[in-house]
């Protein structure tokens, strides 16, 4: 049985975006704070810190989860994927590029969480309807976009990944 | 919005969990999926001395059919139940309810038993357990009285309050299996899909009577049995007033009562889509 006393930092080791990372965490430290403050991956944003807004959503062993509702010590040995892992080298990944193209973000605070949900969603739902996308997005609050651009971006990436040619862009 | 300091334990067996609970009692909280407890800890509505993470106890994660019950272990996640291929066949009410339980991002970690033991009055899973007449299994470290089975009607005692004693672990929840001559229906209204329900209604429609349950209005799920030969609208009005609705920032008491009448009318009179 693992036991960690209060106020006692212990070592947490996890796989962040494919690389093994180690940091110190007290038992009460949230996974979101561990990723940002210990590992320096500040792409993950924190909005409400009680699971409602969805900004801190990351993928834990591939499934979208709220990083603010998980302890850092619970992530020991697990694979954590954040928005930084969605890049294609130095370039934007296809999902990120589609968000840019469709103006699916304005201030961008909620976007990292939405991208992580979309990443898992598209893996499991390769041919989503607009209703499917909106249902998936109901777990996120975005106060800038009205969601229209986000829905368009997700549907376009789904079509692209199925091999449909992209629409000719506006001049 | 950060938890207060606590000791953390991650036991690997049911016996270790029960020993920790016996030693620590009301100063301990059990952590499974964390989708209710972590929010409570972050808001410091609870400041336990010990958090017992049962995620490492292998024999608490299962979906099984035993006798005429669907039995779900304490570590089974809501997403696992929703993805269970036999859900619509054995528990059609749960098949209708599960897409309304939180969002897919919270169902990925949240457990079925966790939602039930948290006992939020607007949560869909406690309502389902109450309407179906299910039960929970509570275990404690005791040489003779180590295990008891509590019906939903006795388990839910008020706002976030249940019959669970501080040294008990809710190890299993049991939903009665679907019966062929019964129809199972569910509907709710919330500020956005996946949020807490303003009113949630679940109904089991049998040949002779209807069992109707409401969540989101009273301090716990409330169940009323309505014979099929009664006037539904009169019965729904009586039911709506019996719930003791109160006004809050989201909806007035009158609006909640009207939702019970309107949603109830649709639920009881329209064919299942």
Automatic annotation (TrEMBL), chain B:
It comes from the Bacteria. Coiled coil: none annotated. It holds the Pfam family FAD_binding_5. Keywords: FAD, Flavoprotein, Oxidoreductase. GO terms for molecular function: FAD binding; oxidoreductase activity. SUPFAM superfamilies: CO dehydrogenase flavoprotein C-terminal domain-like (SSF55447), FAD-binding/transporter-associated domain-like (SSF56176). PANTHER family: XANTHINE DEHYDROGENASE SUBUNIT C-RELATED. This is Carbon monoxide dehydrogenase. It comes from Salinisphaera orenii YIM 95161.
């Amino acid at each position: 049985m693992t036991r960690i006393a209060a106020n006692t930092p212990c070592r947490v080791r996890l796989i962040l975006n494919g690389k093994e990372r180690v940091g110190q965490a007290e038992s009460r430290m949230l996974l979101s704070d561990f990723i940002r403050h210990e590992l320096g991956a500040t792409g993950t944003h924190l909005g409400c810190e009680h699971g409602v807004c969805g900004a801190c959503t990351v993928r834990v062993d591939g499934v979208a989860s709220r990083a603010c509702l998980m302890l850092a010590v619970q992530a020991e040995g697990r694979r954590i994927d954040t928005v930084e892992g969605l890049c294609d080298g130095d370039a934007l990944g296809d999902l990120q590029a589609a968000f840019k193209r469709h103006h699916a973000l304005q201030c961008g605070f909620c976007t990292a969480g939405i991208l992580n949900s979309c990443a898992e969603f598209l893996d499991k739902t390769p041919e989503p309807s607009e209703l499917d996308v909106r249902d998936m997005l109901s777990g996120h609050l975005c106060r800038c976009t009205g969601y229209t651009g986000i829905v368009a971006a997700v549907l376009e990436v789904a079509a692209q990944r199925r091999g449909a040619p992209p629409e000719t862009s506006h001049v | 919005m950060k938890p207060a300091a606590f000791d953390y334990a991650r036991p690997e067996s049911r016996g270790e969990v029960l020993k920790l609970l016996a030693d620590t009692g009301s100063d301990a909280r059990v952590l499974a999926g964390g989708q209710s407890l972590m929010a409570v800890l972050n808001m410091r509505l609870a400041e336990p001395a010990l958090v017992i993470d049962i995620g490492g106890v292998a024999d608490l994660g299962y979906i099984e059919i035993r006798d005429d019950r669907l039995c779900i272990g304490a570590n089974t996640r809501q997403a696992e139940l929703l993805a269970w291929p036999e859900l619509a066949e054995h528990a059609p009410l749960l098949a209708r309810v599960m897409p309304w339980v939180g969002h897919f991002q919270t169902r990925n970690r949240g457990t079925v038993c966790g939602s039930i033991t948290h006992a939020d009055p607007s949560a869909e899973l406690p309502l389902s357990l109450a309407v179906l007449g299910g039960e929970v299994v509570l275990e404690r470290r005791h040489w003779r009285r180590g295990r008891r089975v509590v019906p939903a009607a006795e388990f839910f005692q008020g706002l976030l309050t249940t019959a669970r004693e501080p040294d008990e672990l809710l190890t299993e929840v049991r939903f009665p299996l679907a019966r062929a001559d019964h129809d199972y229906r569910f509907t709710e209204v919330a500020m956005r899909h996946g949020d807490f329900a303003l009113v949630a209604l679940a109904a089991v429609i049998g040949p002779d009577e209807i069992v109707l349950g409401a969540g989101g209005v009273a301090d716990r799920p409330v169940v009323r049995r309505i014979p099929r030969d009664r006037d539904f609208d009169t019965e729904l009005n009586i039911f709506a007033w019996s719930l003791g609705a109160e006004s809050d920032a989201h909806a007035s008491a009158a609006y909640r009562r009207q939702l019970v009448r309107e949603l109830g009318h649709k639920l009881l009179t329209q064919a299942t889509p």
